[in-house]
Write a structure and sequence with these properties.
- The complex is a heterodimer.
- Chain A has no helices and 11 strands.
- By secondary structure, chain A is mainly β.
- In chain A, strands 2, 4, 5, 9, 10 and 11 form a 6-stranded mixed beta sheet that branches. Chain A has a 5-stranded antiparallel beta sheet with strand order 1-3-8-7-6, with no helix packed on it.
- In chain A, a hairpin with a 5-residue loop joins strand 7 and strand 8.
- Chain B is globular.
- In chain B, strand 4 and strand 5 form a beta hairpin.
- In chain B, strands 2, 4, 5, 6, 9, 10 and 11 form a 7-stranded mixed beta sheet that branches. In chain B, strands 1-3-8-7 form a 4-stranded antiparallel beta sheet, with no helix packed on it.
- The termini of chain B are far apart.
- The chains are: A mainly beta, B mainly beta.
- Chains A and B meet through strand 5 and strand 10 of A and strand 4, strand 5 and strand 10 of B.
Chain lengths: 111, 114
Amino acid sequence: TQLLEQSPQFLSIQEGENLTVYCNSSSVFSSLQWYRQEPGEGPVLLVTVVTGGEVKKLKRLTFQFGDARKDSSLHITAAQPGDTGLYLCAGGPGSNYKLTFGKGTLLTVNP
Amino acid sequence: GAGVSQSPSNKVTEKGKDVELRCDPISGHTALYWYRQSLGQGLEFLIYFQGNSAPDKSGLPSDRFSAERTGGSVSTLTIQRTQQEDSAVYLCASSLAASSETQYFGPGTRLLVL
C-alpha cells in the first residue's frame, strides 16, 4: 500500500512569513500533485510534477519533486491570508488510475 | 465551461436509511472517481469508472456501498442502511481518461448520519 505523509499537519503563521510543507513516501510515484481545498469546496489542482528533481513555480508558490520521486515540498513566499486552506499532496495515478492522497496540511495565514 | 457538479450538497439522514449521491462529470470526461473525505483524514479512493464500467470496486468500504454510471455520464453512489461512521464528505472527480494526470473535483456532498 502506498502512503503519503504530510507535515506539518497544522500551520498558523502571520501574513508575510515564508513556509514549507512536506510530502513524503517510501514509494515511488509516477507523478506528484498538489491541491488546495477551501471549506465547502472540492480540492483544486495547483500543480503536477512528473520528473525527479523538477521544480515548478506558480507565483509565490514553489513546488519541488524529489530526485527519487518519493517526496515533494511546497514553499510559499510572503504568505497572504488568501493562501489559507488545506494543502493536499497526491501521488499517481500511473497505470493504476488511483490517486493516493496525504492527510493534508491545514494552513492559516493571519492578517 | 461547467465543472463537476454534485447533489445534494448536504444530506442529513437517520441511521439505517438509504441515501443516493449524484455526480455530474465534466462533459466528455470518460473517467469518473468517487472519494470519501473523513474529518482529519485524507481522501480515500472508493471506486472509479471508465465509461459505464467499474474495473475496480475494491475501495468500497462494505457491501452497503454501490455505485453505477449510466450513459457514460452521471454517476450515483448509493449507501444502504447508513451507519454513523458513514458520515463524511463524498467527493466526485472526473478526467478526460483514466490515464490523465489531472482529475477535476466537484464540491462534494456532506453526509451526516444521525
